[in-house]
């Protein structure tokens, strides 16, 4: 059967239009309609305005019954910078993130697949205005379909090195690197625990405890942009397979685990490796996720970011549209803004 619903949208508080995608396994709900006009002279100001006035809609789109604990999303807005096609704010079950690699790939794919940018073959350029800065994406297009996306990220750099933190009586060494967001990086070999799906509970437990404690011990402050949060942490190791160089597991939000190799995490790790003399320019790095999907990374330039020596990283991966939906906020619904089990 092919039924056509006849719903009177005037009965609803809000109607959101979204394109659902996944990037190498990690979900992105790309919200392309329904949010009110968001004022702000920067994308950070726009994000802060949403936090103050419309955070209930983030919860509605990320939490049950429309989502779940491991949700991730992107809000497409008017850009601030003239060179950008669209502004985008990234959100997850806990908060907002300044930049997201897999989310940028998913958003660019959705915009191309939906015809919301001028599509050209073999490559379509889509410029995104994020809270971390302007991000250029290059979408490989064949027969009108997005095949893969290369993002050129913001300047990335090693922020602090040779740190240690006490978690459950253990001293864990780590570094903090910036790849669009500040990401603590932990060598899983120092913990003696293999990166695999069976050990996800261990890594989420340790990772969330570290994320809660690190801001109490380390000042987080970007030299040129108002970014002071640390919300994502990466454990890494060498890949046990020939298809990749490194393997990771990335935790964030409400005990969330990234199914993709994490774009900002890959950028942060490449910046750290470059600072350590372990990764030069124009040398590919294949990064593997905990479920075995891959990103291809490369450093294309060296720059200065405030007092930090930084690099410009690129990440390449593929995303796929999994659905298009209209989500409704019914004012009669006591759970209209979502809920999380256990809270």
From TrEMBL:
<protein>
    <submittedName>
        <fullName>Proline racemase family protein</fullName>
    </submittedName>
</protein>
<comment type="similarity">
    <text>Belongs to the proline racemase family.</text>
</comment>
<dbReference type="Pfam" id="PF05544">
    <property type="entry name" value="Pro_racemase"/>
</dbReference>
<dbReference type="InterPro" id="IPR008794">
    <property type="entry name" value="Pro_racemase_fam"/>
</dbReference>
<dbReference type="GO" id="GO:0047580">
    <property type="term" value="F:4-hydroxyproline epimerase activity"/>
</dbReference>
